[in-house]
Amino acid sequence: MTAETPKPTAVASLASRWRELLPLLAMAATFIPLFIRPTILLGLDWWNDPEAGHGLLLAPAAIWLVWRDGLRSDTRPARALGLLVIAGAILLRLASELAAEMFTMRFSLMAALVGLVVFFWGVRQVLAWWLPVTLLVLAIPLPELIRSTIAMPLQFQASELGAALLQWRDVPVNLSGNIIQLPGHRLFVTEACSGLRSLTALLSLSFLIGGLWMEKPLTRGALIVLAIPIAVLINGIRVFLTGFLVYFVDPSLGEGFMHLTEGWLLFVVSFSLIGLLAWGLGKLESLWIARKASHA
Predict the structure, then answer these.
(1) Taking CA atoms, which of 55, 76, 127, 250 is between 20 and 30 Å from 262?
(2) SS3 for 206-238, per residue?
(3) How far is residue 32's CA from residue 34's CA, in Å, rounded to a whole number?
(4) How many CB atoms lie within 10 A of CB 89?
(5) Around 201, how many Cα atoms within 13 Å sit in the side-chain half-sphere?
């Protein structure tokens, strides 16, 4: 006679399913009430705030990368660490509510998402998804204080570069801070024209390109660092072109549709330069890898 393994009863099977679903239900009951408001406000900022509009591109790109990469085969849940990260995110969320600080509130949302990944799949999965996590962090709008602190030097840098280029073209210029005085005209390099928006977009693009098509941290870092002078240079050229058109063609070209179109065209040029730079760095990286392999 052979002993038969008793089949699990329906009650035992149902209890097992509930044990599996209980952590998920508990997470949902905590996550939704606490983080639904930061999620909605973040989406509204992406849609309404020009300084945060890059989030409309970064968030879908991050979701696509998560879907493309999928789950690692060697992942293991880290329940204790995940709960610790989620608890820290909740405390950060509550503190941000008391201080009415939006950046901290949004960052707590990202921290909670990381905690959920750690809880269900472990730290290795977070490391495998480092690029989408980075893109989501970059999609959080900077606090106004930090934004103003960064924008002011960029305004002055763009004003100085634009004024220097105008003088090179024999245009009489008197520069005072972020004000370029032309004969009969005055150009104000405002915070919106500081280049912070294009700098943020170029840095995000550099992270994305580096993470997708480069293998070495050194070449990825070089691309990200070189994106900064490209953004500053292109913005200075934009100030120069505005002053040039105002002085030689028509003062109305310094604002309105023409000014906006000029900015978009130079933005496309910036993206093209980043792409060309990424191609060059990728070639150097491939040569270095091939040379290293040949000497192995």
Answers:
(1) 55
(2) HHHHHHHHCCCHHHHHHHHHHHHHHHHHHHHHH
(3) 6
(4) 24
(5) 22
Taking each helix axis as running N to C, give the angle between helix 102-121 and helix 130-138, from 0 to 180 degrees, rounded to the nearest 10: 170
* Residue 174 three-state SS: strand
Range in 73-87, 155-169, 185-199, 282-296 the model is least confident about = 185-199
Residues with Cβ < 8 Å from 296, sequence gap 6 or more?
none
pTM for this entry? 0.79
Nearest CA to 35 out of 89, 100, 101, 114 is that of 89
**d(Cα 83, Cα 6) in Å, to the nearest integer?**
36
pLDDT digits (tens, 9 = 90+) for 103-155: 888 899 999 999 989 988 999 999 999 999 999 999 998 887 788 788 788 88
Cα(288)–Cα(296) distance, integer angstroms = 12
Q: Which of 155, 295, 184 is nearest to 250 (CA)?
A: 184
Tokens of 57: 């591109």
> Which residue has 């200075």 as its token pair?
236
Name the strand (E) or helix (H) holding 182. Answer: strand 179-182
* 3-state DSSP of 122-182: CHHHHHHCHHHHHHHHHCCCCCHHHHHHHHHHHHHHHHHHHHHHHHHCCCCCEEECCEEEE
CA triple 90-94-96, angle to 5 deg: 115
Q: By the 8 A CB rule, do 107 and 140 touch? A: yes
Do residues 157 and 198 lie in contact, with contact meaning Cβ atoms separated by under 8 Å? no
Separation between Cα atoms, residue 270 and residue 233, nearest integer Å: 9
pLDDT digits (tens, 9 = 90+) for 56-103: 889 999 999 999 998 888 888 888 898 899 889 989 988 888 776 788
Mutual angle of helices 217-248 and 144-168, in 10-degree steps: 60
At residue 67, the pLDDT reads 92
